[in-house]
Design goal:
This protein is of the alpha+beta class and about 1450 residues long. The chain has 44 helices and 34 strands. The strands form ten sheets. Strands 1, 11, 12, 13, 14, 15 and 16 form a seven-stranded antiparallel sheet that branches. Strand 22 and strand 23 form a beta hairpin. Helix 4 packs antiparallel against helix 5, helix 18 packs parallel to helix 21 and helix 37 runs parallel beside helix 41.
């Protein structure tokens, strides 16, 4: 369950009981003399050419900022000198706007007045040309205007042709007052501000909060009240006629340690403040005279104080927070209500879930309103509260590019506006423009007035300020001021030449064109003045979600433009990273040691060297190199940026860099109803006179989560060795799988690579389960080497990354260097995550010291001396034996030397066996031949083989042998390898439509590249089906405890409910992998059948995993019995299987001609026991007088089933490596790596477990999952558990079988089974029975022809045999499989080149006549190259 909270805290901030004055003079800057100037109430024009004077009470605007005459016709010849005059006062409403009107070309705005005449009645036209009149206009505030309105407080004239621009925080009217052909470019500017005089400011405090207690991981910041009220908690005096100000919405961001951000949304409003609480000094400052005097002169004034309510969260849901706070504030000023405010607050904080892929849209229904929450887009870019739309809309393309240069070169940037919500969004966007670089200096998106002294800091910073700050102070001289209200940038005097033109030319051109295109779209699609509806109807809810989604997509497009620019200017930087390859020193972590600065600079164009030189010296670039070189929480984002640098082209907008998943298109919506008056007094109504004091007993905390959002987010930290992939790596792997899907060899290798990735995902758990970390890591390194020998290209870097993580965790820096070298040798370039783990392992690991190296050298020297002494002793002993007086040449060897030779021979033999086993343990487990011990028990035979007085070399060699033998023993050899659990697995399945048997390679060839699709395509009819793994388990431990079972049925496992016709499999927690089955027991996925034949039309008793067999009590196998043969002790190891590519070709012959002759007699004379199948199990059969076993129905059934199992067979869906990997990643993400090291993993996730076991057998890699069978509930369900520790994993044998005779329904026995199980009898061999359609003579003839490279004749022999039984039976086994398996059994698998056989079979098949082709079955045709490739790359299965 997702327990992330939408909001963490609800805070009420305002004026405390004992307020502390907010000292405005605490800032080091001097307060402006113009502070608290009266607003401009009147404006007029005078004509100095006709000697008009400045009117009384007015002020003449005489000079420009550069001390030029402020003549509005400046530079014109023989024109009137027109000047502006203005008057300040508070006796009338102030001016709110000033404008310029081109008469006849535009209409006058509503509420505006035109100055047609001067103060003395002459025309006030300021245009010096004859193409129309130009007038000055103004707008006056209403009588009841609110106190927080913006009034015009100053005017200015600027001459652009003289290089002048508007002063700081002045707004320029972009209409030239001088429209003549000659003269200067004259523009009018004005400044607006709040004109409050009767105001007192105090330090704000937290009045109320919910919850009352802090979260352990996220305490409530003490400075929240300052950010809720950045200009302080105020007490103000207004006119009684003044309108009450509207609530103001603002946002802010608090940045903690590690750049963990907290997002705040606040609404500030005013409430009446009692005059009785004011002191005499406060009343004097507020201009409040004696109450009786005010009543006498009818001076009506009211006192108010501001208050703020705020929501704090880890997530930037600013729009939803705004609606919720407005709703809560509306409740406080209306009423009565049946539900108190407290209940609404707790309902929103704890009953509203965080949007997730299962519920991407949340709709919170309020009484007359609704709040919508949408899941953030799954973007690889870091989440923030930035609004790139607001930035581009309020700054424009060129200003955005200029600010980008300022940020990259780390200048002081001051962003200011009167709109607090816009200020935070734009400041956040500016700080994230430079992704993947991160701003390292002070950053405050909305700085309170009490913290404004940070502007004097000597370091670079990005700070957002309320523009009212500049009513008090001037900006510092070395700061770049960015005014969002006037859309202008004011650089310092010494840096006015800095502009976006200093950026690299080619990527800048693409950036500029893209920004202009998006800016034009922005003006059309998102108008500047949008409609703020106070209510939301239910009808257009979908339109609201679509509108928000459209805005989000536009945000990502703008963000992608800047991402493309950053990728272009840093393209190829990875090539200049310098990995740590030796023992680290003090300078290892310096950026100069980690990155080749000069080499990177030389790779750039010479014209851009100045830009790059400044960039390389910045803190943000050095920090970027450090984060890129070591493990950080930004590794996923850095890996994504690396991919962007590889894809971008400097001169193009393609390809697309940010790709969203289809899950974002989901329209599933979860509705949250309003809170109910549960637990409240019946009929009670709640009314408020202002925002109330919150009462704790009215909150409802029924669904309060126990864990916080940060704990949820940080659960899988980057330092934990969790085998996880980034989302971008998953997408890349999916694309690669789709690309190679139609290429047989590449698709087969893709499946094999994913199978190896599965093994590395279990490596951390395997190391925890194993006792020797070093051996486990060496084993993993050998597996990596084996992958390289097989020329496998891993789908991602997970294999190497897990190794490097573990090397760092277990202090193996030397091995980390080897792994990194192998990675580079394989052509894999590490991304940011893998590279960081490598450097961390090398930097923090314990390197071998010089003292230990000296000891190694002394040991080598000692070994050489002792070795020379041993050789001398052997030469002396040999010379003494030759000089003996014995008469026979053979008797010259002394008895002592003979005994020593025999002893050495026995030792050498023992050494060879153990070394073979040890080498195999390094390369993985060979199916049925090797098992690795985990308990560290040393076989007794190894102990007995040690000499009584070994030399130093012998002792060292013996210690090495014992160390390896402690982990590796033979599966069936001796007492230590006694088999107590025998597991036989097979993936052979039957197509429900065409009824053909599908073998493992055919199932693999039918899979697709979709990692969520369980279906495979039938190789013969192309219908969809879900294959299954069938597992047959024999547990002999019960027979050890009790020789006879009390009840045979106790050995059975009940998988279904009582009375069920067929067992239903239990999948534990893996039930979500497969949907429910239909009544017929078949799983239906994806596409329907190609015809109308439903699965349920087939008889259920034909289904292999629904068949019942008569189970008998299991008995321990006799190791000497041929029915339980020992695994091949000389089977190939993992490294040997990689080198088995060279076999006999067709030209060299399909088989070894010297092993068998072509005569029938030679074939009959072969030793039968050497050709017995591993599947054949002794069934205590009684032979008749001729030595031929009697085929009773029970015996025949047992032969088909390949032996009797001690329990019901286990059936689980057979998953492709891609699907299995996705589900395994989900388990690791939710349960952690520790779940893979617990024996409950088998019972909790049986589907995943058995599929992993199957693939680990297919790649021949050892794993720890085998030991889980000893303690699993599966083997003793419903019975007392067996004692733990008596047996180890070496007592468990797991076999992966190619065929599964238990599900065969075709005519008779397979030829390879008949060849092994039926002895020769001339009379019976001549008969064709149902159980044996092909007699021994026919099989001998088939084998003889195969030895002569003739496959056509065996095909015709099989066709003739089928024709005799065709009227009675309609289904035969696959001719291809029958002939192939017979050749393997009769001639030996090592003597048959499967690829050459497939070529010959295909050629012989093509020579059949059309009539013969009609008599064939679907499964008789040759196998496709895709099937052959899937069989070739994986290790061989048992037959």
């Amino acid at each position: 369950m997702d327990d992330r909270r939408v909001a963490d805290y609800f805070v009420v901030a305002g004026l405390p009981e004992n307020p502390f004055p907010l000292e405005e003079f605490s800032n080091e800057a001097a307060i402006k003399p113009t502070y608290k100037l009266d607003p401009i109430t009147d404006i007029t024009v005078i004509n100095k050419s006709i000697s008009e004077k400045v009117p009384r009470g007015y002020t003449l605007l005489e000079k420009t900022p550069s001390d030029y005459p402020a003549d509005m016709n400046h530079g014109s010849l023989r024109q009137h000198e027109m000047y502006i005059c203005y008057r300040r006062s508070r006796d009338k409403p102030p001016l709110t706007d000033v404008g310029v009107l081109y008469e006849g070309k535009e209409r006058l705005m509503s509420g505006c007045e035109v100055i047609h005449t001067t103060y003395f009645g002459t025309p006030a036209n300021v245009n010096n040309s004859s193409n129309g009149r130009t007038y000055i206009t103004y707008r006056r505030a209403a009588e009841n205007a609110p106190s927080d309105m913006l009034a015009v407080v100053d005017l200015c004239i600027v001459l652009e042709n003289k290089g002048e621009g508007p002063p700081h925080s002045y707004c320029q009217i972009h209409k030239n007052l001088n429209r003549g052909l000659m003269g200067s470019d004259v523009y009018l500017c004005y400044k607006k501000a709040m004109t409050k005089t009767d105001i007192l400011a105090y330090k704000p405090a937290i009045l109320n909060r919910y919850p009352a207690e802090d979260y352990a991981d996220f305490p409530l910041p003490e400075s929240v009240s300052m950010f809720c009220l950045p200009m302080g908690a105020t007490v103000e005096c207004w006119s009684a006629k003044a309108q009450h100000p509207y609530p103001v919405f603002s946002t802010f961001i608090l940045t903690g340690i590690g750049w963990n951000k907290v997002y705040g949304a606040a609404i500030t409003f005013y409430e009446e403040y009692s005059e009785d609480k004011l002191t005499d000094l406060q009343m004097r400052h507020l201009g409040l005279k004696n109450k009786h005097i005010r009543e006498q002169y009818r001076i009506m004034k009211t006192v108010h104080s501001n208050k703020s309510i705020c929501l704090l969260s880890r997530w930037p849901f600013f729009e939803a927070f705004k609606h919720m706070l407005q709703y809560i504030h509306r409740i406080s000023i209306t009423g009565p209500h049946s539900v108190p405010i407290e209940r609404h607050i707790s309902h929103f904080m704890y009953d509203v879930p965080y949007p997730s892929p299962q519920r991407p849209r949340i709709l919170v229904q309020l009484s007359h309103d609704a709040i919508s929450l949408a899941m953030p887009e799954d973007s690889p870019l870091p989440q923030s509260g930035a609004s790139f739309v607001a930035m581009l809309k309020n700054l424009g393309p060129e200003n955005c590019m200029t600010i980008l240069l300022y940020v990259l070169h780390e200048h002081k940037i001051l962003v200011h506006s009167l709109r607090a919500s816009v200020l935070t969004a734009v400041a956040e966007a500016i700080s994230t423009l430079i992704f993947p670089l991160q701003w390292q200096c002070p950053y405050i998106p909305l700085c309170p007035l009490g913290l404004s002294d940070v502007l004097s800091a000597p370091t670079p910073y990005i700070i957002g300020l309320d523009s009212r700050y500049f009513d008090l102070f001037d900006p510092p001289p070395d700061v770049f001021c960015v005014d969002l209200d006037t859309i202008r940038i004011w650089p310092p005097d010494d840096k006015k030449n800095l502009s976006y033109k200093l950026l690299p030319r080619k990527p800048t051109k693409v950036l500029q064109e893209s920004l202009h295109r998006l800016y034009d779209r922005l003006v059309v699609e998102l108008p500047r003045h949008g409609q703020d509806d106070s209510t939301v109807d239910l009808a257009p809810l979908d339109q609201d979600f679509k509108k928000k989604h459209k805005e989000i997509l536009l945000e990502l497009e703008i963000q992608e433009v800047f991402l493309r620019f950053m990728a272009c200017i840093l393209k190829g930087y990875k090539n200049f990273l310098k990995p740590i390859a030796n023992m680290p020193d003090l300078d290892t972590t310096n950026a100069a040691s980690l990155f080749d600065m000069q080499g990177f600079l030389k790779s750039r164009e010479k014209a851009n060297h100045k830009f790059y030189q400044t960039l390389l010296r910045t803190q943000l670039f050095n920090r970027f190199i450090e984060e890129r070189s070591f493990v950080s929480d930004k590794d996923d984002s850095l890996a994504f940026f690396d991919e962007c640098t590889e894809k971008v082209v400097e001169t193009s907008e393609e390809p697309k860099l940010i790709e969203l998943e289809d899950s974002s298109k989901s329209e599933r919506t979860m509705f949250i109803l309003p809170p109910e008056p549960v637990g409240l007094p019946d009929g009670k109504q709640y009314s408020y006179n202002g925002f109330p004091q919150l009462q704790g007993d009215l909150f409802l905390e029924k669904n309060k989560p126990a864990r916080s959002s940060s704990q949820q987010r940080d659960r899988g930290g980057p330092s934990s060795p969790v085998a996880r992939r980034t989302k971008q790596e998953i997408r890349t792997a999916q694309k690669h799988a789709q690309q190679v899907f139609n290429q047989p060899s590449l698709w087969a290798k893709c499946l094999l690579s994913h199978a190896y990735s599965l093994w590395f995902m279990l490596l951390p758990a395997y190391i925890k389960y194993s006792q020797s970390v070093t051996k486990a890591l060496i084993l993993a390194y050998d597996v990596l080497k084996n992958m390289q020998r097989q020329k496998l290209k891993p789908p991602d870097e997970l294999c190497y990354r897990v190794m490097l993580q573990l090397c760092g965790q277990y202090n193996k820096p030397v091995l980390a260097v080897k792994v990194y070298s192998e990675m580079k040798h394989a052509g894999v370039h590490p991304n940011a995550i893998t590279y960081g783990y490598y450097n961390k392992a090398v930097l923090e690991g314990r390197w071998p010291t010089t003292i230990s190296q000296g000891r190694v050298l002394w040991r080598k020297l000692r070994n050489v001396v002792l070795g020379v002494a041993k050789f001398k002793r052997a030469v002396r002993r040999r010379s003494m034996s030759i000089c003996s007086n014995s008469g026979s040449e053979y008797d010259q060897v002394s008895h002592a030397s003979l005994d020593s030779c025999l002893e050495e021979e026995r030792l050498d033999t023992r050494h060879e066996t153990i070394m073979l086993a040890g080498s195999r343990s390094d390369h993985g487990q060979v199916p049925g031949s090797l098992q690795v011990k985990v308990n560290g028990k040393i076989p007794e035979e190894v102990e007995k083989s040690a000499p009584s007085h070994p030399s130093f070399l012998e002792q060292m060699e013996r210690e090495c042998e014992l160390e390896r033998a402690s982990d590796v023993v033979m599966a069936t050899g001796g007492e230590a390898g006694e088999m107590v659990i025998d597991v036989e697995m097979s993936s052979c399945s039957r197509c429900p439509r065409c009824r053909c048997l599908l073998y493992d390679e055919e199932l693999m060839a039918g899979w697709n590249a979709d990692d969520s699709n369980l279906n495979t395509a039938c190789h013969f009819c192309h219908s969809k089906l879900v294959p299954h793994l069938l597992i047959y388990i024999k547990d002999y431990r019960r027979c050890k405890v009790s020789e006879t079972a009390e009840d045979d049925t106790e050995a059975l496992i009940d998988f279904g409910s009582p009375g069920a016709h067929h067992p239903s499999p239990s999948y534990g927690k893996d039930v979500n992998i497969c949907p429910p089955t239909d009544p017929s027991g078949h799983f239906m996925f994806g596409e329907d059948m190609e015809d109308n034949t439903s699965v349920s039309s087939f008889d259920t008793h034909h289904d292999p995993w629904q068949r019942h067999s008569d189970h008998v009590p299991a008995s321990p196998p006799d190791v000497s019995s041929p029915s339980h043969p020992k695994p091949a002790e000389n089977g190939p190891s993992l490294s040997e299987m990689a080198n088995m590519g060279h076999r006999r070709t067709t030209s060299e012959c399909l088989t070894s001609a010297t092993m068998y002759s072509s005569s029938l007699e030679s074939l009959e004379s072969l030793t039968f026991k050497n050709l017995r199948s591993p599947l054949s199990i002794s069934m205590d059969e009684s032979d008749d007088g001729h030595g031929r076993p009697t085929l009773t129905p029970e015996r025949r059934r047992a032969m088909f089933e390949g032996g009797l199992s001690s329990m019901e067979p286990v059936s689980v869906p057979y998953l492709s490596p891609l699907v299995l990997r996705k589900n395994l990643e989900s388990i690791i993400e939710s349960e952690g790596n520790s779940a893979l090291a617990k024996d409950s993993f088998l019972d909790d996730h049986p589907i995943i477990y058995w599929n992993l076991m199957w693939y680990f057998k297919r790649i021949g890699a050892y794993n720890h999952l085998t030991a889980f069978l000893l303690t699993s509930q599966l083997l003793h369900r419903g019975r007392e558990p067996l004692p733990v520790g008596e047996y180890g994993p070496e007592n468990v044998r797991v076999r992966a079988c190619w065929d599964n005779l238990r599900i065969h329904q075709e005519v008779g026995l397979p030829m390879h089974v008949a060849w092994n199980n039926l002895h020769s009898s001339t009379t019976v061999d001549a008969l064709l029975t149902e159980a044996q359609p092909f007699n021994r003579a026919v099989m001998h003839q088939i084998i003889s022809n195969i030895q002569c490279n003739d496959v056509l004749t065996p095909i015709k022999l099989v066709m003739n045999g089928r024709r005799r039984l065709r009227p009675r039976k309609k289904r035969f086994r696959s001719m291809y499989r029958d002939i192939t398996y017979l050749a393997f059994k009769a001639c030996g698998r090592d003597n048959i080149d499967n690829e050459a056989f497939d070529r010959e079979y295909k050629m012989a098949f093509s020579r059949l006549s059309p009539g013969e082709m009609k008599r064939l079955q679907r499964d008789d045709k040759p196998r496709s190259p895709l099937v052959q490739a899937c069989r070739k790359v994986f290790s061989e299965l048992d037959l």
